Amino acid sequence: MNSIKLQLFKQDESFNTLLESRGFKQIFRIENPLELGNVLSFTDSIKEPNVLFLFDTVSCDISIFTINLEILDEILDGIDFSIGFLTPYKDQIDYQNIKYRTPSFDTYFKHSETLTFKAVPLNIEEIILKHLKKYYTTLRNNFGIFDSFYLPIDNKEEIIKKLNENIDENVKSLTVEDSEYVNNNWPYRSDESIHFIKWACSQEVSASYRIKNEETGENELVSWILMYPDASIGSLFSDTKYRGKGFARKVSSLIILKKLQSQPNQLPYLFIKTDNVPSQSLMRSLGFKTDTQVKWIVCSNK
């Protein structure tokens, strides 16, 4: 098999228009990370793209989009993960214009102990696994199946009005000081996840709910939601003592509102496990629609 090599390129709106004309689905997922300045884009052909890889410089996760499974298979066959995914592009990367990158970014110039492919469409899961097993001893794809949700914007003013009705004065943004507590309660935390959480808590697009603790007199963080580096919304959490009180709706409403204001041209989107009925019901009630189903793949040599 003659392997196809990926090209590193600077993604812009005209390229996104080309992707849409080529038949790429979920174009909203591809467009969203661009404004954040933390994504490296790779494709097989800038003029006639069949496959797109997005490398997130904050989470160091990889997203794959394709309209041709055969070409995707050839590309994966040509990637030597033993030298690090970014190594072939070391001299091409514009390091000065990467807005955010975490310490683990540098590990992708060598054989990474852990590699994550996020939001993998179910139809390409087996192709990815086939190639990764050459390089990694442990492949985990048992995190469950997630529904991809997006918020259609038919009447933006009406959506904003309804979201504002759910918000009160106790809904605020998260702060960097919240990061340790948020990370400790994140179900997917790892040795390095605090870097991502600090980044997320420092962003404009996050939301939290605090109530006064009658015993200590201090405002207690009881619910939150934040934005991931790919601009998806996630990590909705409410303390078990305060669930069922509508706090999740309040923080979700604020983050959606802030997302619409800070990135007016992008559709809010998120991923929810298929068996997470409460969160699915909440987001549907806020106007979200399902798009497709995806999985996470984590490979490791630890």
UniProtKB/TrEMBL annotation:
It holds the Pfam family FR47. InterPro entries: Acyl_CoA_acyltransferase (IPR016181), GCN5-like_dom (IPR013653), GNAT_acetyltra_YdfB-like (IPR027365). Residues 217-297 form the GCN5-related N-acetyltransferase Rv2170-like domain. GO terms for molecular function: acyltransferase activity, transferring groups other than amino-acyl groups. Signal peptide: none annotated. This is GCN5-related N-acetyltransferase Rv2170-like domain-containing protein. It comes from Dictyostelium discoideum. The lineage of its organism: Eukaryota, Amoebozoa, Evosea, Eumycetozoa, Dictyostelia.
